[in-house]
Amino acid sequence: IQHSPTSGEAVVSQSESQLQKRLQKVLKEQQASSLYLCAPLIRGRKGHHEPLANWARNHDYTMLRIDGQLTELSKFKKLDRYKEHDIDLIVSELSTSHSQLSTSQSLKEALRLGKGSAFLLSSEGELLSRLSTKRTDLATGEAFPELDPKHFSWNSPRGWCPTCRGYGQLFEWMSQEEESSVDHLDDFDDGETCPDCQGARLNELSRAVRLPLNERRTSNIE
After folding, report:
1. Is 14 exposed, middle or buried (0-12, 13-18, 19+ CB in 10 A)?
2. Which class for 138: exposed (0-12), middle (13-18), buried (19 or more C-beta within 10 A)?
3. Which of 134, 147, 201, 204 has a CA positioned 20 to 30 A from the CA of residue 169?
4. What is the distance between the alpha carbons of residues 27 and 138, in angstroms, rounded to a whole number?
């Protein structure tokens, strides 16, 4: 069961009307001239993804977020087909001047395309808030992305602790801008336990997933 790494509470589902209220709250808090409402389309998938860009262009969308970078569709070029990519669709540009009906329609569209998930970006591309019909922490209002097997692998950037990069320890060679091609296996005994993951090697989102073992034991006893 997925839990919030912030509050420790299990995530729950939310209705579109509840998410609409949260979206309106974020818009008022930001007081920005414009924010981007986005839908996640692709996560960790190899390919040049030109068909997706063509689809978005044909449906009158103007921008994608590719591997964290905002990209105008008019300037899209085929991606490296041998690398994994994350692609998000900029569904709408929102501001406090938009009517509640217009904002509601944009959110509905984003959740449909994102299969229940959406998120809000600043005009500079900074992640401001996630919105999810399936994975929301009621204590904080925070929402979380859908997990996949790579979130539970310390060999993947999706799963590893960003501080120790999945090693569970910190080594001197990690402070270098680029890792050399030298084998560091001989140095593994000299590392210090990672202060963030405490040697667990996974990031906080992955570590917050728990198995309902107590519930199973109780049901077996009964």
Report:
1. buried
2. middle
3. 147
4. 19
Class of domain 149-207: mainly alpha
- Cβ–Cβ < 8 Å for 156, 164: no
| AA letter at 43 | R
Nearest to 81, CA basis, from 50, 48, 49: 48
User: What string of pLDDT tens digits covers the 222 residues of the chain?
Assistant: 888 888 888 889 989 999 999 898 888 888 767 899 999 999 889 999 999 999 999 999 999 999 999 999 999 999 999 999 999 999 999 877 778 888 999 999 999 999 999 999 988 888 888 999 998 888 887 888 888 888 899 888 889 999 999 999 998 877 764 444 445 555 556 788 999 999 999 999 899 998 776 554 434 444
Burial class of 126 by CB neighbour count within 10 A (0 to 12, 13 to 18, 19+): exposed
Token output for 155: 């060999």
**Residue 160: how many other CB atoms lie within 10 Å:** 22
CATH superfamily ID and name for 16-132: Ribosomal protein L1/L10, rRNA-binding domain (3.30.190.20)
Residue pair 64/86 in contact (Cβ under 8 Å)? The answer is no
Domain residue ranges in the chain? 16-132, 149-207
The model's pTM is 0.73
SS3 158: coil
